[in-house]
Amino acid sequence: MRQSIVEAIDISATQAGIVLNADQKRLTERLAMLAQPDGRRLRARRNQSSRGLYVHGPAGRGKSWLAQAYFDEATVPKTRVHFHNFFDELHLRVHDSRDDPRALESALSELLGPSRLLFFDEFHVHDSGDARLLTRLLEFVFARQLTVLVTSNYAPESLLPNPIWHHTFESGIAMIKNHLDVFHLDGPTDYRTQSPHHTTGFASGKWLTDSAPGSYPSADEKATLTVRGRQFAALAVRNGQLWISFGQLCDSPLSTIEYLYLADAFGDWVVTDIPLFDEVGREAQQRFINVIDILTDTDTPATFISTHTLDEFLATDTARPDAFRMASRLQLLRG
Q1: Which one of 226, 228, 236, 250 is most buried, by most CB atoms within 10 A?
Q2: Model-level pTM?
Q3: Are residues 21 and 107 in the same domain?
Q4: CATH number, domain with residue 15
Q5: Which letter does DSSP use for residue 191 in this model?
Q6: Could you tell me the residue range of the domain that residue 173 belongs to?
Q7: How far apart are CA 37 and CA 31, in angstroms?
Q8: 285 and 269 Cβ atoms separated by less than 8 Å
């Protein structure tokens, strides 16, 4: 099984025109050690603490791609979750059973089902409330001896970097270090900046600095979107394509719940009037980062229209947490 995992990843890389570097090959070998569908590897390690792998490093180094290639090939019962999607589902299920003292445990059982492998992509923590839920999640999966695969831009000790709240996730960090092997995937190249493939999904999108005025929606095309009883304005909805301004998308009190719904409801987006990143407030910055996360993870094509070039926009990137990941993902777009 180990060799089949390595071969499958090599084949996927070749088909994608990717040449794995030395660190990526080492990670491939380490991923292959996780895969034993009959549990022999897990039983062999039962007296050891490690129950999986925590892969961290800068954006665009191939962490998610390699982990996904392994996940696709693994034959054990498995679940892949992404931060935003997972917490949306978890909050909904807990809310529906809020009178049950075991609501969180029941929700986690429903979400993970019979899985023996959990792949948690883009793991990050910036909120003390999320830290408490993630700690409970880690307790749940390690108590049930699931194999856990995590990708993150943050080393375990750098999670929840805000010094005011960092202590609220110290127990979670300790569990990660005690139960997972930590693998640092680094390198000088952000491969998203070199991707030649712009044919499908998010990578087929564009960043435009001009547009024919006639293509913009007229005032009578304005639309009202309803998400779980809340209403939000948009410029237009055209044959399944959502037109929405940066202000409507990021200055309004929308959350990842609304963004996930919109990505599911509309298979193509046009986001207009994008200002320079440092010209908007911290909340609008974080919402735009979340939008890019969700559009990338759902592989939704999008056109971004601004009076500024993408390079100009990214030049005003700030030290805001996760802005570096947004910058890397926007590099997938065509000019």
Answers
A1: 250
A2: 0.73
A3: yes
A4: 3.40.50.300
A5: G
A6: 2-184
A7: 14
A8: no
